Amino acid sequence: MRCELCGMDYGLTHSCSGIAPPLTAEEAVPPPPGIAPGYYFRLAFGIARWDDVAIRRAARDPDSLFYGAVFCALTAAIIFLGTALPSMLRDRVLSAEKLFWQVLLGFLFVWLSLGVMALVQIVLCHLVAKWFFAATGTLVGVTRPLLLGWFVNGLIVIPLVGPLAAAIAWTAVLMSVFEEADGIRRMQAFLISAGINAAFLALQYFLPH
């Protein structure tokens, strides 16, 4: 477990110093003012690489929520373009106008469905961490870095190995963020992330397409 006050990991007993750990110089640097997609893009890749500092910075930065949502929307659009659009283009019966409306509706569908799925996964993982492993983080604190790191699901467009690669990468991001931002052990974070992700994959497989 991790002490809510001093941040120290402990087993059965713990002598708390009562002093919160100081921020490192890298963590203390404020985000750039104004519109800064490049900064948040680098932060997102840091989260995908299990960078603890990037996760903590994103968890404390309110703007991470907005940029994470934008990156998620772009990734979902790429997933749609890489998986569904080719079959639409092969349909010779579709006129240009019908193709346009199908593409537009396709974008709306993937944005809504994948967005809801991601948020439900995040909420479930956080609740399990709170109920069973005494997580010390907040829902918004884990959502910010996870939305930035959700772009790893874009690996699904890779032929053959894409779905497996995306599932493994997303599980790894979930694990690292819940370990760092929710204050639980890595094995606990892995079990929660892998279990919830596997349940969602099984649900998608058995649901009618």
Protein described:
The radius of gyration is 19 Å and the shape is globular. Helix 6 crosses helix 7 (139-149). It contains nine helices and no strands. Residues 16-20 have low confidence and may be disordered. It has two domains: 1-30, no CATH class; 37-206, no CATH class. The longest helix has 38 residues, at 96-133. Helix content is 68%, strand content 0%. The protein has 209 residues and is mainly α. It has helices spanning 25-28, 37-48, 52-60, 63-83, 85-90, 96-133, 139-149, 162-181, 186-206.
| Helix-strand pattern | HHHHHHHHH
- Helix-residue proportion: 55-70%
Number of domains: 2
Structural class, from secondary structure content? mainly alpha
* Overall mean confidence score, pLDDT: 83
How many E-type strands?
A: 0
N-to-C terminal Cα separation, in Å? 42 Å
Instruction: Tell me the overall shape.
Output: globular
Largest sheet: none
Low-confidence stretches: 16-20
Count the helices. How many?
9
Q: What amount of the residues lies in strands?
A: under 5%
> Rg from C-alpha positions?
19 Å
Briefly, what is this?
With 209 residues, the chain is mainly alpha-helical. The protein has helices at 25-28, 37-48, 52-60, 63-83, 85-90, 96-133, 139-149, 162-181, 186-206.
Give a quick set of tags describing it.
2 domains, mainly alpha
List the helices and strands and how they pair.
Elements lengths: L24 H4 L8 H12 L3 H9 L2 H21 L1 H6 L5 H38 L5 H11 L12 H20 L4 H21 L3
Helix pairs in contact: 2-3, 2-4, 2-7, 3-7, 3-8, 4-6, 4-7, 6-7, 6-9, 7-8, 8-9
